[in-house]
Structures are given as structure tokens and as C-alpha cells.
From TrEMBL:
<feature type="region of interest" description="Disordered">
    <location>
        <begin position="149"/>
        <end position="184"/>
    </location>
</feature>
<feature type="compositionally biased region" description="Low complexity">
    <location>
        <begin position="165"/>
        <end position="176"/>
    </location>
</feature>
<protein>
    <recommendedName>
        <fullName>DUF4168 domain-containing protein</fullName>
    </recommendedName>
</protein>
Length: 184
């Protein structure tokens, strides 16, 4: 019985200790920050509900051209983006404490990632103009929604520790004025 009690105390202590650790920062991915990703033509055609074969073939040809353009951008800027990614991931925690290092990293990002992002956005606008000619207004609206969902997948989720997840509901109730108060 004593062994079980001590085992329970040790396990409980480990749980409490594990909850107070700071969250780990997600790894920086320069290609995601630059907006470099490829569309799957078959999946996109299903999402926007293309049914006619000729529209599907024109749509997939446009998507393939876009993907090739993005591959060229990625190939030309790949080494620079990898250097930025490696620098940020290796320095990571030190950048929070050192403002000079933080400004150097910001400058590096502005010099490499932002021009790549701008060129990707130009290609994306060109893609949307081409698709505007092919798709109906309803299909174009579905395409734009699909496009934003694909872009949102690139955004890293902020790390959460157990403490913020557990107390979130309680904080929300306190801001609203308690559970049973009138809200006039």
C-alpha cells in the first residue's frame, strides 16, 4: 500500500512539473513563410466541383503551369531560404534575449523571404486571373476559398502549454461576469 501511495505521489509530482514547462517554439520554415507550395490539380478540381472534362483539362493545365513557375522560384531561391531557415532555427531562443541579433534576423528575413513572397503572390494573382476566365463565378468563389484554406495550412500553430489550455474556460467566464449574471 505504501508503494502505491509513493508511486501515486511521484506520478502526480511529474504531472505538475510537466505542466509548468514553457512551450517549445515551432520550427521556422522559410518556404512556408514565402508562400511556396503546390496545388494538387485533381484535389482542387474535386473541391470546386468541376464536372466537364474539357474544363478539368484546362484547369489542370493552368495549375501545372503555376506549379512549374513556383518550382522555378523555389529552385532559384532555395539555398537562400535554407540559409535563413537554418539560421533562425539554430539561433531561435537567443534571438528573444538579444535585440541586436533579433534585428539582424529580421533584416535577413526582409532581404530574402519577402522578395520571394512577392514573386509568389504575383504568380498567384496571374493564376487567379487565368482561372477567372475558365471558371464560373460560383466555382471561382470555391477556388478562392480552397486557396485561402491551403495558405492557412502553411501558418504554424502557436504552441500551447497545458496551463493555458486548462485555465482558458475559467478566464472566459470571469470576463463575462460569472456564470449566472445577467448581461444587460
Amino acid at each position: 500500500m505504501k508503494k502505491l501511495f509513493f508511486l501515486f505521489l511521484a506520478f502526480n509530482g511529474l504531472l505538475i512539473f510537466g505542466q509548468n514547462q514553457p512551450p517549445k517554439m515551432p520550427k521556422y520554415k522559410a518556404k512556408n513563410a514565402a508562400g511556396i507550395f503546390y496545388y494538387d490539380a485533381v484535389e482542387a478540381a474535386k473541391k470546386i466541383k468541376l464536372k466537364k472534362e474539357e474544363k478539368i483539362s484546362v484547369f489542370s493545365k493552368i495549375i501545372k503551369n503555376y506549379n512549374n513557375d513556383i518550382k522555378n522560384i523555389s529552385f532559384l531561391n532555395g539555398p537562400k531560404l535554407n540559409d535563413v531557415e537554418l539560421t533562425i532555427n539554430s539561433v531561435g531562443e537567443q534571438a528573444f534575449k538579444n535585440p541586436d541579433l533579433r534585428s539582424k534576423i529580421r533584416k535577413m528575413i526582409e532581404d530574402t523571404v519577402i522578395p520571394v513572397r512577392d514573386s509568389v503572390l504575383k504568380k498567384e494573382k496571374n493564376l487567379n486571373k487565368k482561372l477567372e476566365e475558365v471558371l464560373s463565378s460560383k466555382q471561382l468563389k470555391k477556388w478562392l476559398r480552397y486557396q485561402t484554406s491551403q495558405k492557412n495550412k502553411l501558418i504554424p500553430k502557436p504552441p500551447q502549454n497545458n496551463q493555458s489550455r486548462n485555465n482558458g474556460g475559467m478566464m472566459q467566464r470571469n470576463r463575462m461576469g460569472g456564470m449566472g449574471r445577467r448581461r444587460f
